[in-house]
User: Fold this.
Amino acid sequence: MAESHKCQICGKPATVHLTQIVGSKIHKIDLCEDCAREKGVTDPEGFSLGEIFGGAHAQQTGESLVCDKCGFTPKDFKKNGLFGCPDCYVKFAPVLEPMLRTMHRDIVHRGKVPARSLKKMSIRGRISAMEEQLDLAIKDERFEDAAKIRDELATMRKSMKTETK
Assistant:
């Protein structure tokens, strides 16, 4: 089932989904019909996402924010679609975060982990668990079990060393 989106300006269910490509950057926004009409989205050449950002920001805060470090305003964002400095991301977070969550599912970039690294992490986790089992077996004086676990650990460590070469 498709994920339902909310209007990034008023919070109503969104029925208009916009994607704008500026240079090599993709910007997406979801709007309800009323906000889309109000922003002039019915005329594809009469709006920009920067314009919508400025309007949403003014509605949400009731005031025009200015970055303390660089003096950047929503009007500047509207003009060029870029922020002025790293502090702008903090200052404009109340409006920026909902947009990022819609575009990227989260506001923090987590990246990808290579498959080989995942395999190594998995092996390290199993080795750690087996070391705990070994300690417990020795503590409980189950020496035959401890010997088996020790041998398995040696085999796993050896295979891990050959994979890293």
About this structure: The longest strand covers residues 16-22. The two ends are 45 Å apart (CA to CA). Confidence is low (pLDDT under 50) at residues 55-63. Residues 76 and 83 are 8 Å apart (CA to CA).
